[in-house]
Structures are given as structure tokens and as C-alpha cells.
Design a protein that fits this description.
Blueprint: H1 2-34, E1 48-52, H2 59-75, E2 79-83, H3 90-97, E3 105-110, H4 111-119, E4 131-147, H5 155-164, E5 168-171, H6 177-189, E6 194-197, H7 201-209, E7 215-219, H8 220-228, E8 232-237, E9 263-271, H9 276-290, H10 293-301, E10 305-310, H11 311-332
Parallel strand pairs: 1-2, 1-3, 5-6, 5-7
Antiparallel strand pairs: 3-9, 4-7, 4-8, 4-9, 4-10
Helix pairs in contact: 4-11, 6-11
Length: 337
């Protein structure tokens, strides 16, 4: 009797384990499917730090705050813009490159970061290895401006004047997009101008209006109000099509320089290794935001054009920008202090 009981008990235990194995096998896939993948199901579940490597109130800061506000409202989680200017935008980039790759630290990037790859070959991080392009957000053209009383009335006249005599050309600083655009024009026009770097775009506009310098290849939003007010004359915009806020100003192609197309773009990067589902969620939300009429109108009023480009295409675009500006920097021997 005792032996029969043990035999029956063993059979019951074996059956129980077999059933448990079947249940575990069947339940396993459901458990995996229900579990968050790389944290994306609950992302974000805490505040996000959005590093802007420029001073507050600038062009990149404006776009980053627009993104932060819209996505904070959509996700019901705070996105805190953290301005970390300095080092030609490298200080903030370095902090993000070394942050945890968990989707909670973002970097606002611009054309400046593409040129920095060449301008700063010994950085303690790599823009192309340590950071992952998520989405390009918007772009704005450069606009070539001269004082309103200048005798120069076209881009070809500017080239001619620069070939005959020395002109003073201002910019917002060595290696900045206005400086690079100036250098590109010099190469194409076979002319040389004396570069006068300022600490930002605003002081260059003040001296240009006052006649202390002859021309600035300006960030569009920085000079737009002065052109509208009749204090500066716009010779051309560096886009393929005329800008709706300055419809009477020709494009560089119309002005005879089709290869002077320059976009001062801004986008978003995260530390390399950030889980793909999180990257895709950020990108999709930004693209959705840029599809909103109210957001597009706000961006356009500031002189920007929504230019969403996500994932690999944005990474490829960034790479082409690095290559393009490396050639200009090396040819013109541009150095930063």
C-alpha cells in the first residue's frame, strides 16, 4: 500500500511538472509581449534634459523650447531646456555624448556641430560616434545684407567690389555659419574680404547698420527685422526658392551663384546606444508636432522652415554637411581662437 502510494505520488509530481512546463511555454510569449521593450512602453517616466549648447534667446534655443513645450504637453512629462553655451557649442555636446544612453538627455545640434568636426579635431568626444542623430527639426537660410546706403545692389556687384578693393565682412564669430558662408562665397567669387568676427550676430548687425563694415552673410532671423525696417538691403537668400518673408529678394541661384545654397539647420541628437524604440518615439512625436498648423506658423514667423528628417537620412545629411564644410575650412584655412 505504501509503495503504491509513492508510485502514484511520483506520477502526480511528474504530471504536475509537465503541466507547469506547458503552461510556462504558453504563457512565456504573452509575458514577453506585455513587458516594456527597452523601456519604451513607459517612456518617458521622468523629466528629460534638453541641452542647448548656446545662450538663451538665440535661434537654436527658440526651436528647442518649441519642441520641449509641444512634446511636454503630448507626453505629460517635463522637458527641461538646459542652456550650456561655450566652447563653440562643444561643452554642451560633450555633456550629452557622455550621458547615459537612456533617452533622458537630448542635444540641440546645428550646422555648427558639423563644422566643429573639422575645426576641433582633438575633442574628447566624437560627434559621429558618440552621438546619434534623431531628427532634423527646421532650417533657415542665410541672407546677404549690406547697409541701405551701400552702392552695392546685387551679389554680382558685391563680388566685383570685393575683387577691386578690400571689403570688411562681419560674422557672428570664427567658424560660425555666417563665417563659413562668407568663405564659400569668396571661393566661388574668387574674391577675398577682410573677415571681422564678432561675439554674436547682434553686434555685427549694429556695426553693419552704422557702416563700420560692408557686408554680413547673416542668419536670416537676425537680419530680417532690419531688412523689413529699411535699415539693411538684402542682396540674396541662400535657398533654392525665394523666402515668403522676403519675396522680392532673389535667391543665390537667381543672383548667379547656384552653389551657394546654405541652410542653417537645427536638429536633435541623443547619446549613441539609446534604444531604437525610444529614438523612434522621439522622432515620430517631433514629426507630428511639425505637422501642426499652429506650430508651423510660429516657426515660420521666426524665419524658420519646418524640415523634419529622421533617423538614417538625417545621419547621412549630417555626414554630407561634415564633408562639405571640411573642404571650405581647409581651403580657407579657417581657425578658431
Amino acid at each position: 500500500m505504501h509503495r503504491r502510494f509513492n508510485l502514484g505520488a511520483r506520477r502526480s509530481i511528474c504530471c504536475a511538472f509537465a503541466m507547469l512546463a506547458v503552461i510556462t511555454t504558453l504563457a512565456g510569449p504573452r509575458s514577453v509581449a506585455a513587458a516594456p521593450q527597452d523601456g519604451v512602453a513607459n517612456y518617458p517616466d521622468k523629466p528629460i534634459r534638453y541641452v542647448v549648447p548656446f545662450a538663451a534667446g538665440g535661434l537654436t534655443d527658440l526651436m528647442a523650447r518649441t519642441v520641449a513645450q509641444q512634446l511636454s504637453e503630448e507626453w505629460k512629462k517635463p522637458i527641461v531646456v538646459d542652456n550650456k553655451p561655450g566652447g563653440n557649442a562643444n561643452i554642451g555636446a560633450d555633456q550629452v555624448a557622455k550621458a547615459p544612453a537612456d533617452g533622458y538627455t537630448w542635444l540641440a545640434v546645428t550646422l555648427t556641430h558639423a563644422s566643429n568636426v573639422t575645426l576641433f579635431p582633438s575633442l574628447p568626444f566624437s560627434m559621429q560616434k558618440d552621438l546619434l542623430p534623431v531628427v532634423r527639426v527646421a532650417s533657415s537660410p542665410m541672407v546677404v545684407v549690406v547697409p541701405v546706403n551701400s552702392p552695392i545692389k546685387s551679389l554680382k556687384e558685391l563680388a566685383g567690389a570685393a575683387q577691386k578693393s578690400t571689403l570688411n565682412a562681419g560674422s557672428s564669430g570664427n567658424g560660425t555659419p555666417p563665417h563659413l558662408t562668407l568663405a564659400l562665397f569668396e571661393s566661388q567669387a574668387k574674391a577675398n574680404m577682410t573677415h571681422v568676427p564678432y561675439k554674436g550676430g547682434a553686434p555685427s548687425m549694429t556695426d553693419l547698420i552704422g557702416g563700420q563694415i560692408d557686408v554680413v552673410f547673416s542668419n536670416f532671423p537676425e537680419s530680417l527685422a532690419y531688412v523689413k525696417a529699411g535699415k539693411l538691403r538684402a542682396l540674396a537668400v541662400t535657398t533654392r526658392e525665394r523666402h515668403p518673408l522676403l519675396p522680392d529678394v532673389p535667391t543665390v541661384a537667381e543672383a548667379g551663384y547656384p552653389d551657394l545654397i546654405v541652410e542653417n539647420w537645427t536638429g536633435l541628437m541623443v547619446p549613441a546606444g539609446t534604444p531604437r524604440p525610444i529614438v523612434e518615439k522621439i522622432s515620430a512625436s517631433v514629426a507630428r508636432m511639425l505637422g501642426s498648423d499652429s506650430v508651423r506658423q510660429r516657426i515660420a514667423a521666426a524665419g524658420f522652415t519646418p524640415a523634419p528628417q529622421s533617423g538614417p537620412p538625417f545621419a547621412e545629411y549630417f555626414g554630407t554637411e561634415v564633408t562639405r564644410w571640411a573642404k571650405v575650412i581647409e581651403e580657407k584655412r579657417i581657425r578658431v581662437e
